[in-house]
Amino acid sequence: MEFTEEEQREIENTFRLFKDYAVNPEHADEVKNAIMSFSLSMYSLSVARLGIQSKETNLQKAVSSIEKAYSIYQLPLYLYDLACFLEQKGKLEEANEMYMKFLNTQMNYNIRPIDKVILAQRDLEESIKVARSKTL
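The structure assignment produced for this chain is given below.
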């Protein structure tokens, strides 16, 4: 998978935050993927809010990064983020499908220990509530 320079920089910065943590070798790949996807998700959220380039350009970068995050580590919350970005782009039908996919995936998802670190930064219950309201 290829990353933009900005995405790569964000990934490297995030890994620096975790450099002093010990990880059980049995879970090393999972943790590595979770951290990488987390950094991409945070990048996507920040770029979607920036006014550096056009809103459309920023949203396209956000969509690309969150899709990469989900392909690396399938945390359902990333589907919610994708739905939000699609909605902001005016792609309401695709957004609705993604909100529904998020809800269905989240319902059957078993939260792993590394997920708790990622989810501590977000309000999962509020995301579920919002997604439900969008799919009525």
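Interim note for the steering committee: Helices lie at 5-17, 28-49, 55-72, 77-88, 92-107, 113-119, 124-134. Residues 34 and 115 are 8 Å apart (CA to CA).
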